[in-house]
Amino acid sequence: MHPALAGISLVVFDLDGTLIDSAPDLAVAVDATLAERDLLPAGVDKVRHWVGNGSHKLVERALADALGAAAESLDAGEIDAAHDRFLAYYADAPCERTQLYDGVHECLEAMRERNIACVLVTNKPVAFLPAILEQFTLASFFALTLGGDSLSEKKPHPAPLLHAAEHTGVAPARALMVGDSRHDVQAGKAAGFRTLAVTYGYNHGEPIADSAPDHVTDSLAVLAAD
Ligand SMILES: O=C(O)COP(=O)(O)O
Ligand SMILES: [Mg+2]
């Protein structure tokens, strides 16, 4: 068994950039939002760097970039209005270009066989989760799924991870956080979880090793190995 799983009874998985490559659909919704305001498209490469702090931050970063302004200088009402438009566009097509990463299903199957509880903790709005989980037949693997707006705090705050531990009755010391961004690693450390980071996701253009996770992998398939 992979050393990250030694003594582990709960694995909390991040979604975007960890289980699914959702940036192409997020970019379509961002670009449609910008186009309504006659702003140039951001494109998927930029959007990849902006995912991870929830959809509101994604839209704020996209607007700031398109307007050549500092995020702090934007009007809050302007960001809220653009965010509403983004949510409408994304709701129309949340999984047309999104792909499941290799190794995800075999990893989740292996957790099920080993009786290791799995919980999904994403900063994505919870309203999008049913359609995405159904599209990739992921729903049945999770004891609980939390979005960025499910609780009053989201990652990098440890609250959603501690909620997952409490919900499954597993002590944080026996839990592992698996994610692609520094926010996942920070939340995991703050919650007293062990941390495993994937190298292929979105991390604001920084190497995830800089966040000093306990383990790093380039595929979740390693968690399925004997
Ligand atoms: O920022 C988002 O909307 C999603 O991010 P996460 O699934 O990587 O937490
Ligand atoms: Mg992520």
UniProtKB/TrEMBL annotation:
Family: Belongs to the HAD-like hydrolase superfamily. CbbY/CbbZ/Gph/YieH family.
Record protein name field: Phosphoglycolate phosphatase
EC number: 3.1.3.18
Keyword Glycoprotein assigned: no
Stored Gene3D superfamilies: HAD superfamily/HAD-like, Putative phosphatase, domain 2
Active-site residues, record numbering mapped to chain: 14 (nucleophile)
Organism expressing this protein natively: Salinisphaera dokdonensis CL-ES53
UniProt keyword list: Carbohydrate metabolism, Hydrolase, Magnesium, Metal-binding
CDD domains with a match to the protein in the record: HAD_PGPase
Pfam families: Hydrolase
Requisite cofactors: Mg(2+)
Coiled-coil parts of chain: none
Family annotation (InterPro entries): HAD-like_hydrolase_sf, HAD-like_sf, HAD-SF_hydro_IA, HAD_sf, PGP-like_dom2, PGPase_prok
Catalyzed reactions: 2-phosphoglycolate + H2O = glycolate + phosphate
